[in-house]
Amino acid sequence: MSGTAGSLLPREFFDGPAPEIAPALLGCVLTHDSPDGTVAAMITEVEAYAGRGDPASHAYRGQTPRNAVMFGPPGHLYVYFTYGMHFCANLVCGSVSAVLLRAGRITEGASLAAARRWPQPAAGAGGRGHPERDLARGPARLCQALSIGRALDGADAVDPRSPLRVSAGSTYPGPAGPVRSGPRVGISQAVDVPWRFWLDGDDSVSPYRTFTPRRGRVKPVTGPGPGSGTMPG
DNA sequence: AACATGATGCTCT
DNA sequence: GAGCATCATGTTA
Fold this sequence. Notes:
Blueprint: H1 18-25, E1 29-34, E2 37-49, E3 77-82, E4 86-92, E5 98-108, H2 110-117, H3 139-146, E6 164-167, E7 179-182, E8 196-199, E9 231-232
Antiparallel strand pairs: 1-2, 1-6, 2-5, 2-8, 3-4, 4-5, 7-8, 7-9
The protein binds a DNA duplex through strand 3, strand 4 and helix 3.
């Protein structure tokens, strides 16, 4: 694989299984040129969703209008709307797999990102505002900071003319620091597979939350949860 | 730190 | 109608 830091990733980078590609995306940079301006983020946390065989994947139940992009060529962005108010973004890989972008560190356009995340200035004249690490700490926050919405569903992230692109990090190929992995967040299926990957020690990584059914929507659940925590990468 | 819950609407059965 | 690949805020520690 060839490439230099700052250059667009080649499409072949994404033409493989998401669980193998996901950790390699850590440290890469996601850039969105919008009419408002440009915001870029270094990817610090991802999750892999394998193809039709992964019960936690949106592709598990086959193609629908919503997940159609997942069934297309690798290197495109799959954006979906969830919980009535949030967007989440994935990069499509080979064989109908995808990598969910869970968190990033803003490297360009931080003031624009902050204006999108926190339209009302932070309270407190003493000055303590919102910490920079919270700008894109979480999949929906990342989308909000970069203004990723439905309009970018299907965008080609390896096309230099695209408004939304992924480029190599400072140490391409491979992330700058050690990678850790653990169970995926917020899902009820396949909880045992450690397909969440993050840059060890980076404070822009989102906190781990176990899946908890919401009140009034109780489903019989027995047996132990995921082992917990992390495992070395 | 852990847990609980409201906000909000699309997607699939 | 049920179930979400969520977040922010509140409460209890």
